[in-house]
Amino acid sequence: MKLIIAIVQDEDTSRLVSSLMKSGFGVTKLATTGGFLRAGNTTLLIGVDDEKLHAVMEIIEHVCKSRKQMATAPATMPGMSGMYSASTYPVEVTVGGATVFVLSVDQFVKL
Asked: Roughly what angle, to the nearest 10 degrees, separates helices 10-22 and 53-63?
């Protein structure tokens, strides 16, 4: 059995959860916050049998596409201590996609 931990952008969450549930996969949804953009993310926990791992990964890959968007950079950048900018500025960033961790599960109990 595998535990899939998928971190996806909020914009992709409802489509992904819907697609997974239509395919018969149970999903636990956790609200989380991202790093650089401090944007809303969702972390999904999905438990599957080993032989169903590929099907879940295909659904995630199909729904969670990377895309470019303009975002406002923070006034201070990490690694630039002591340097401050009076204003923020737009930068193009890649958003979307998914960060996926797959863990082996020794035991699963549903009470």
From this structure: 140
Of 98, 32, 21, which is closest to residue 61 (Cα–Cα)?
98
Which DSSP string corresponds to the chain?
Answer: -EEEEEEEEHHHHHHHHHHHHHTT---EEEEEE-STT--EEEEEEEEE-GGGHHHHHHHHHHH--EEEEEEEPPSS-TT-TT---SS--EEEEEEESEEEEEEE-S-----
The two structure tokens encoding residue 93: 């960033």
> Left if phi > 0, otherwise alpha if psi is -120 to 50, otherwise beta: which for 97?
left
56: number of CA atoms within 13 Å, CB side? 26
Reported as a single tens digit per residue, the pLDDT across 68-110 is: 766 666 555 555 555 555 556 777 666 667 899 999 999 988 8
